[in-house]
From TrEMBL:
InterPro entries, A to Z: KR_dom (IPR057326), NAD(P)-bd_dom_sf (IPR036291), Sc_DH/Rdtase_CS (IPR020904), SDR_fam (IPR002347)
Matching Pfam families: adh_short_C2
Single Gene Ontology MF annotation: oxidoreductase activity, acting on CH-OH group of donors
Keywords in alphabetical order: Oxidoreductase
Family: Belongs to the short-chain dehydrogenases/reductases (SDR) family.
Entry-linked SUPFAM superfamilies: NAD(P)-binding Rossmann-fold domains
Protein name: Ketoreductase domain-containing protein
PROSITE patterns: ADH_SHORT
Originating organism: Hevea brasiliensis (Para rubber tree)
C-alpha cells in the first residue's frame, strides 16, 4: 500500500473540526490571537466584543478568508458585555442559531486593567467596581452559562484567562490581581462541580504580553523592568499564549482539569 497517497486522500481531521467556540474579548490582543488559532484548528468562532465593532469584524473576516467553510461563515461577531447575564446568554443563543450546534468551547478573554496602576489606598470605588464587574462577575457569568449549555460527554472546554500577577503581587495591581485570584479559585471549584459532564475547566495566566492593554499607562522604564525580570529577556507575545489555549481546547488536554497554567517565560 502507498501510505503517502492514502494519507493525502484521507487527511486527518483537524482537532477542533466543526466544534463551536466562543471567545470573549476577541476583537484585539490575546483574545484575537486565540480566536484565529482556534479557527486554524477547525473551530467555528463567535467573536465577542464590547465596543470595537470594526476590529471584531476584521477578525471575523480574517478567519473567514483564511479558513473558508462550504460557503458558510466560519466566524461571526456578537456584541456583548460579559458583566450582563442577558448579553452572555445571547452569545450562546447566537452560536447555536448560526452554527446549529451546542457550544463546545468557551474562552473568556475579556478583561480590564486600570492604566493608572493605583495603590489600593488610592483606588476609587468606581474603578474597583468596574474591574470586578468585568474580570470577576464576567468570568462568573460566562462560567455559569457554559456549565449549563456546553456540549456534554466529550469536547466541552471552559478556559478562563487569568494573570500571572496573581503570583507576581506587584504594587499598583492590587484590585486587578484580586479580581483574577477570584477567577482562579472559582475555576478550580467549577472543575469539581462539573463531575460527570465530561467538561473540563482551566485557567491560563499570562505574564506581561505586548498588547495594547499592556502598554497603556506604562513608562519605558516599567517596560524595560518587565523585560529584565523575565529569564528569557523579552515581553511575551500573543503567539506565546494562543497555542496553549488551543491545546486546552482539544481532546488531548482531557487530563488537565481544574488547573491554572502560568505562561510567562519564568517571570513568576
Amino acid at each position: 500500500m502507498d501510505i503517502s497517497s492514502s494519507n493525502s486522500s484521507n487527511p486527518s481531521p483537524l482537532p477542533l473540526q466543526d466544534r463551536v467556540a466562543i471567545v470573549t474579548g476577541a476583537s484585539r490582543g490575546i483574545g484575537k490571537a486565540i480566536a484565529v488559532h482556534l479557527a486554524s484548528l477547525g473551530a467555528k468562532l463567535v467573536i465577542n466584543y464590547s465596543s470595537n465593532r470594526d476590529q471584531a469584524q476584521l477578525v471575523a473576516e480574517e478567519i473567514n478568508s483564511s479558513f473558508p467553510h462550504n460557503h458558510s461563515p466560519r466566524a461571526i461577531t456578537v456584541q456583548a458585555n460579559v458583566s450582563d447575564p442577558s448579553h452572555v446568554k445571547s452569545l450562546f443563543d447566537e452560536a447555536e442559531r448560526v452554527f446549529g450546534s451546542p457550544v463546545h468551547v468557551l474562552v473568556n478573554s475579556a478583561g480590564v486593567l486600570d492604566p493608572k496602576y493605583p495603590s489600593i489606598a488610592n483606588t476609587s470605588l468606581e474603578d474597583f467596581d468596574l474591574t470586578f464587574s468585568v474580570n470577576t462577575k464576567g468570568a462568573f457569568l460566562c462560567c455559569k452559562e457554559a456549565a449549563n449549555r456546553l456540549k456534554r460527554d466529550g469536547g466541552g472546554r471552559i478556559i478562563l484567562v487569568s494573570s500571572s500577577m496573581v503570583g507576581g503581587l506587584k504594587p499598583g495591581f492590587g484590585v486587578y490581581a484580586a479580581s483574577k485570584a477570584a477567577v482562579e479559585t472559582m475555576v478550580k471549584i467549577l472543575a469539581k462541580e462539573l463531575k460527570g459532564t465530561g467538561i473540563t475547566a482551566n485557567c491560563i495566566a499570562p505574564g506581561p504580553i505586548a498588547t495594547e492593554m499592556y502598554f497603556s499607562g506604562k513608562t519605558e522604564e516599567q517596560i524595560r523592568k518587565n523585560i529584565d525580570e523575565c529569564p528569557l529577556g523579552r515581553l511575551g507575545e500573543t503567539k506565546d499564549i494562543a497555542p496553549i489555549v488551543g491545546f486546552l481546547a482539544t481532546d488531548a488536554s482531557e487530563w488537565i482539569n481544574g488547573q491554572v497554567i502560568r505562561a510567562n517565560g519564568g517571570y513568576v
